[in-house]
Structures are given as structure tokens and as C-alpha cells.
Amino acid sequence: MLEKELELMTKVSLLYYKQEFSQREIAKKLDISRPKVSRLLNKAKEEGIVKIEIVSPVKDTSNLESEIELRYNLKEVLFIDKTDNQPDELIKIKIANKCSEYLERITEGKEYLGLAAGTTLYKFAEEGNFSNRKDYRYIPLIGSLSDIGESYNSNEICSILSKRVGGTNYLLSAPALVKSQEIANSFRDETRIKRIFNLYKKIDVAILGIGVASKNHPLYKGHLTPREEKELEAHPLCGSLGIITYDQNGEIIETAFLKRSLGIDFKELLNIPIRIGLAFGVKKREAIFAAIKGEFVNVLITDLNTGQWLNKI
Question: For this UniProt entry, which residues form the secretion signal (predicted)?
Fold first, then answer.
């Protein structure tokens, strides 16, 4: 039996026997069918997972995951194990595989995936371990962050996924940031771009890299006017999701540059049913915490150490 199947069986057992969720509630929370919940509970008994107490056959993080889900009102939390000497690339691959496993479990009947930008999402597109071909539709959530073809752009991430996994990728033919609000409005009125923005209403699942916001962020670096730099300095920057910037309390930072940016806005994002945040490491903890407080993400995939930190603060 695969480790991911054992992990799901353990989580279902904990919800049912320890947290006293009904099978219907578990099915809704984990986006699986009620008959599947019943089968998993029966199989858990056969496999010896459910005895007098729940015994996990893999490294047990399910209790901590469930505690954080309840504390922060998240749909689901998933951890990857991380040691201090592991390179970031290996950690990103672990997160990529955990995210692909989660998607395969919950996306039956869900067609439209929204993808933001960033190196962790790129690794998900490049390395995510999907077991079979899909028919997803991939929607870029932010315009191009670079004009030199760097691989963390939303368009490229969508393209890689369509080639590796199957499905259709859409192209947002616009930069993330333009010179003025008037130019941004002109882009939004262009037929091909308007089509992408209209698709935001159809997205079932958004996959978002949680970034640390600063003036050196690719969205801002070299693009801010002196006035906009002063605006940003007046706000306590914390985290970013696409073009969305927020403070340590999870409050949106409304600045002039947002009006000349092209991508999904926070109101559209909050209408997406499943919003997966991917991030890890000490440097991103405050941004992760603030993203949860702002309800920008309702599913979190991160490292176990960050999970333990979230449970203590």
C-alpha cells in the first residue's frame, strides 16, 4: 500500500474516532465521497491502524495537522519532513509531490486550476508526481514578471503542467506591471486578456506560492516610482500572493502600483473554493501566518518545523 494512501486513511480515522466528525462531515472536509470515507475506515481496521488508539504506519504528523486545521479554520494542512541540511531544491520537490498527491485526491469533478508564480510552483509543475494524465484547464493568475524568460512565470508554469500532466493551458499575454493605470485598463479591455480574467470566476482550485514581500520582490524591483516606494515604506510589508500584498495581520496593502498591475485580485481569489498555499522555511513563517489570518489560503502545504511553530504562537 502506498504511503499517501496510509496517510489519508490515518487522517480519516483521526477525524472520525478522535474528533468525532461524521462521515458526511469528513467527506466534505477532505473533498472525497462518503462511500470512500466508509471504505477507508473499514480498511483502517483491517490494516490495524484503528485499535484502542490510532496508530499511524508512517511518521505521524496527522495529529498536528488536525490541530492546526481546527485552530486556524483551514480545510487541510499537510506537512513534509525537512532536515536542516537539506537543500531548498529537494524540499521544493517534496512539497511538489505532496501537492500533486492532494490534487489527485480532491480534484474529481474540478476542472479549472489557477496557478500563480514563483520557484516553488515551478518545481511543482516540473516535478509533481501525478499518477496519470489529467484534463485540467490551467489559468495563469498573474502576468509576466520578467522579459527574459525566467522560469517562475505563471504562463510558463501552466504550459509545463499541460505538457507533463495533460489538459489545456491558457496564456495571459500581459506583463504583471505596466506603466500606468490607463495602460492596465487598456490591457484588461483587450479580448484575449478579458477572456482570462473572466475565467477567474470558474477556477476550482488556486495554487499559490507564499512570498516574502519587500522592495526586492520581482514584482517591485526596478518598477516602482518614487511615490510608490514611499507608499510601500509607509506600510509594514509582510507577504505576497501574485499581485496581492499584505501586512502581518493579513490586511491587504492598497497602493498605487496595484492599479497598474495585471492579475487576480484578492476579492476574486477569495471566491475560489480551494486555495492552496505552498511555502517553507523560517524566512517565510510570518508571511505564511499572515496569509492564513487573511484567509487568502485555506489549504497549507509546508514543512513540519513551520507547522510546529504555527502551533506554538
Answer: none
Which triple of cell numbers denotes residue 33?
A: 465521497
Q: In which domain, by residue range, is 86 found?
A: 61-311
Q: Which residues are registered as beta bridge partners of 54?
A: 50
Beta-sheet pairing, 137-140 with 112-115: parallel
Sequence-ordered strand ranges (E) for 5-136: 76-80, 112-115
Q: What are the pLDDT digits (tens) for 230-285?
A: 777 777 889 999 889 999 999 998 877 788 899 999 999 999 999 999 999 999 99
Q: What is the pTM of this model?
A: 0.83
pLDDT in tens, 29-74: 999 999 999 999 999 988 888 885 555 555 668 889 999 999 999 9
Distance CA 203, CA 86 (A): 34
Structural element, H or E, at residue 207: strand 205-209
How buried is 313 (Cβ within 10 angstroms: 0-12 exposed, 13-18 middle, 19+ buried)?
Answer: exposed
